[in-house]
Amino acid sequence: MRVAVVTESFLPRVNGVTNSVCRVLEHLERRGHEALIIAPGPGPEAYAGFPVTVVPGVGLPGYNSFVLGLPTKAVERRLREFAPDVVHLASPVALGAAGARAARKMGVPSVAVFQTDLAGFARRYGFRGTDKTIWSWLRHVHRQAARTLVPSSATYKQLDERGFPGLAMWRRGVDAERFQPSRRSEALRRELAPNGEVLVGFVGRLASEKRVELLACLADVPNVKLVVVGEGPAEKKLRSMLPDAAFLGFLDGQRLAEAYASLDVFVHTGPDETFCQAVQEAMASGLPVVAPAAGGPVDLVTPEETGLLFEPNDMDALRACVVRLAEDAELRTRWGAASRLSVEHRSWTAVGDELLRHYAEVCREHAPRSGPQLPVPAARLARVYEFGGDGQKAAAA
Q: Domain named Glycosyltransferase subfamily 4-like N-terminal: which ranges (predicted)?
């Protein structure tokens, strides 16, 4: 199968969209498919052995680390040259809209992945009164796709109520080999908590929409040491608000896995997450989780079994949840073990094969019922039908 991935964000920028796209590309390579990436530049020339076409990008006002790809004519030209079987639209806004439009002109189905609460993002950055316009535009973009994949039940309900068609669930995978309790580092713990404090940590982008400043309510909790992993535009302000917290900066690879596993409690503060991969990685690392009762964490955290949910933005409730876990080591151990069990089966291999089934289904649905009414090359359809239900090439009869 030939898959064109049009993504609003890609390397070297690291965020939820980029990470998901990278895991999808790695899975396509493992399964023997062909892929093309179209992304805002600057960026790499290739990833997972697949070529990357970069288009001009512009940083958002007040948040230049987020680059918006410009929908140039190169998008359609490159897609026609590649001749994909399906177009994957990763969190489509502007560049993704161009990809969706080009796919329709070519008679190729597209699968859109809804991953960013753009309206909530805009509100956090002071763009008031934009909700209606943003939702109208996103609905227009997603209506051009054959299917919209959503990461959580909360997002599914939100989009369904707003009239988005063709919705289906597709949750994120987690690398349970990389993120696991055995990565715990006693050396790191001694460095961060020399007096045996309970390590309570946050991992994520340090930005307004993450509401990391809510952690200030934990600053004077006895025997608790705050740990913050990540970077972003709010870092300077947060360092001032949390002078006793340990800021570890941006971490990836094994250093990130070690940081997760060395914590005792994981706290997420942002209420606008469509999924929240950081929560899932913390759970794979064997941690009990405290998170808002909103968005993606509602599906991930089972209250009184793997962690606790608090009313969004309620600092008193957040503090009470953390105090309860900080004072009960046995509860932390029990819920942390349950967290690990609840997510360790969600490998990117399983999730990737589920995505391939979505691709195959929209290609079958898009095929002409009789005669060549749709401009779908017969050779392209033949390629699609070579693949079985699990996304792998079917054995020859």
A: 14-178
